[in-house]
């Protein structure tokens, strides 16, 4: 053992003890005849003291220590004269007798402090140094704890963790696969799983009853901040259950996590239908940390000669409490915000409720105070409130724009506190959504998702209105998990395929494997999957999932530290029976 | 909820209760006017009863049920007249009121019983049905429990589970990599990790202090029974530790597993040097469930005119207690066994200790009773014992042959009981081994393994004799885990590379990435990795790791159930900038 204690555990109770600590030199300070070294390990920071008066040669040795040197120091725990209340070890210091340099260190390319001077690229290239920063390591510690608590909860509830294979086959539907050439089967390829969906359903056919797995999944898609080519799912499935059973089980898991990790008791999760989520928030993952629900204004504002509204299919607005003080400049900036191509609104109308209760709007020339008072009433707005209105010829698109405006207002008004959590279930997703591209109905979740029993007759008459037994868990506007009850009845499955436009032959070709397995006795079953990266980010209050991943990839899918991917030896390619083709541009 | 109880939990205490069970029809029997259905789920089997007299139509419905139908049955728990003590639910049965077929089932291609009629190929193709068999599912349940207990122990000891990436880069040394073409980086490839060795060492440089991960690893090697292209490691690393600390920590983990899973208290693990393991067992993973240690006989048996022994570099034997009754036929079969090409001995000499203490050997014409009594004394053999002797011109090769003979005798004499466990550490592995192929010393473990401090001077004078701080945990002749203390001193590392014949430039080219990271302050560290598949197999008493893997691959690396690998769509290949090359034969 190189040490008797860690750098995070000594306090006033240990004064007088002889201890040995190991760690990295965080800071070195000389003051008068004294040298102070802050020694850091995963557990904390402790101050080492060297006195020129007491031991000149040891002090000189300490003066030669550089930042990030690896040290082993033996000495006596002493009470500090000037204590540091911010540091758990801040009441004591170590009067060092013996100092050993276990390893020297080159000067790191950026400072190893929470508030570092290193840019993103540099820190990614030297990720092993970036991970020394306490704030970065804390995210990984949180990740460990969350995964452990998830396993504990699921184990206690009879779930078995079953490892499914990483080398599987390419799936005909879905996102783009990463593939792996097979040396032993020339010309053939494995694919890396986008999710263990089919395998977990097979485990239900096998009678595993309750399955879970914390598992890497892979999607070869173009990347953005909250996507990684490899990501981790908490993947779950249960047999002989209805939707209610699954919602209860995983609401319980979420409650357990909040309690175990954050010491928070969360209220019973509200449930909102997909339809209402779209109507009131313009999103299937509403941020419910704040109200500011949409109010539809078409009936109130149409027909007064304002061409923009008169020609609109949808007029809707939000009421920002207490924001009537927004200046013209702030309102113009908001208008510019919603007009950005990513959002695409044509413009924005606003109305302030003044101190006397009168409403002053940007379209006063078209509307009488009487109509504006109706507007005010629709929001139950009060003096000092600001009403923001968007319109458009497509209700869904306009709601999405209004959603962006609502989120921006929430941010501007400080209503999206990262330390506050609002969890809910979004339920009753539609079975199908219309694809403009394919000119047909597509499965919104996946084609094995069960319709709600009461909507089954609508499969014949109005399939677009059929609701699914599908659900998402949403926290602070982030979809952390989602799933569905699966179809276990082959006739119902055939019907669902028919609506999707698959002939029985086509369905057999695409999904025959699972359908054949189901013939041998499939139980009623359902499940869900959480995105662990997103879940951890949310608990850590991070903007990007990247910061809770030890070795993430950048937007080009590169690991900057490992410099992967890279070129292969020609002999490797030959063994794999492939060649690379560099296209001329 | 489809059920009130599982099929494994009802007993005499529940008599009179109204319950609903769900599961699969395991067996259907008609006796007189009664029909009995055994309903099975993951938790057990319960008997359902239908009486023609009481409810003829319900009984008729029960008579139409086929094997593996998925059922939901409601009824009253009743005490059985003829109890089945072997089944935990064998004291009761359910008098069914209502029976619902949740799903019909086609006749399975083999019987879903522990003792099935299905061959290996058929069961692998329908693995989802094979997994219904209680004996197969039990292995997966054991796997879940072992992984969970490993995590619990390591979490309690301050280890953090950190997920390392699956898409990494190809390593220049080591086994063959599986590779993944990168779409976004044309002509470049990721590799799947053979182990997270470098990444876990980087985590030590990052100050993670105690890391573990239960992680999939990949090797594109030709396969045999105990190898799979993807396998699972319990991968661990610790900082500021010496070998002793690691052995204690993981001996503790093994002790915890035996206690938690099997209720067994294992003794302190003996430690045997690699040198002694080779000398006494001819193997670096000796099966110590039984003694039968090698005794070297060169001094005793050489020089009496028996040409085979007189020309041998090594003569050694084992003593099989109480096996003097072996017949000539059995001894001939043993001789044939060691002469098989896989073992390669030239022949075998035997000697029986007779009831009167005299020794009778197969080479009596060369040896007097006096010499044979020396032989007997060397083994401390007694009346009724059988001595078996091999010799050869290469001591190492002969010991390996003798090892095979010892294991075979252990098996024949019933000394290798799968329910008995003998654990030990093999320590002091050599740093280097001579490669005939490369005509140079190679690293036995890997080139970052630390030599024993007292052997460092030998790096200059006699490198082949340098011992490493490397260790394996062996249970019942299986290497379940192994690891080493790593070098953290750059000068020592340079010396070790030099002995391996690497110029500084070559070392930098091959291992520069890790060496550069080490420049920023590497702590003393070491670790080990367990093979989870092997560990579970051992606890389950299985001959092949395949049976503790949910969806294993066959010897051609194929998943027979998924039919993976498979061919890709040409458009997929084009996107990935590769083409397949089918070689002419």
Give an account of the 3D structure.
2 copies of one chain form a homodimer. Chain A contains 17 helices and 23 strands. By secondary structure, the first copy, chain A, is an alpha+beta fold. Chain A has 3 domains: 12-103, Beta Barrel (OB fold (Dihydrolipoamide Acetyltransferase, E2P)), CATH 2.40.50; 138-271 and 423-548, Bira Bifunctional Protein, Domain 2 (BirA Bifunctional Protein, domain 2), CATH 3.30.930; 290-412, Gyrase A, domain 2 (2-Layer Sandwich), CATH 3.30.1360. In chain A, the strands form 5 sheets. The first copy, chain A, has an 8-stranded mixed β-sheet with strand order 6-9-10-22-21-20-17-11, with helices on both faces. In chain A, β1 and β2 (34-41) form a beta hairpin. In chain A, α4 (134-156) crosses α6 (243-262), α4 packs across α16 and α14 runs antiparallel to α15 (504-518). The mean pLDDT of chain A is 95. At the A-B interface, β1, α4, β6, β7 and β8 of A face β1, α3, α4, β6 and β7 of B.
Write a short abstract of this structure.
The structure is a homodimer of 585-residue chains. Chain A has helices at 56-63, 120-125, 127-130, 134-156, 197-205, 243-262, 274-281, 298-301, 307-310, 328-339, 369-379, 395-412, 458-461, 490-499, 504-518, 532-540, 570-575, and strands at residues 18-31, 34-41, 44-51, 70-79, 92-103, 160-161, 179-181, 189-191, 210-218, 230-239, 271-273, 295-296, 314-320, 349-353, 359-361, 386-392, 423-427, 432-435, 440-443, 470-475, 478-485, 525-531, 578-580. Chain A is of the alpha+beta class.
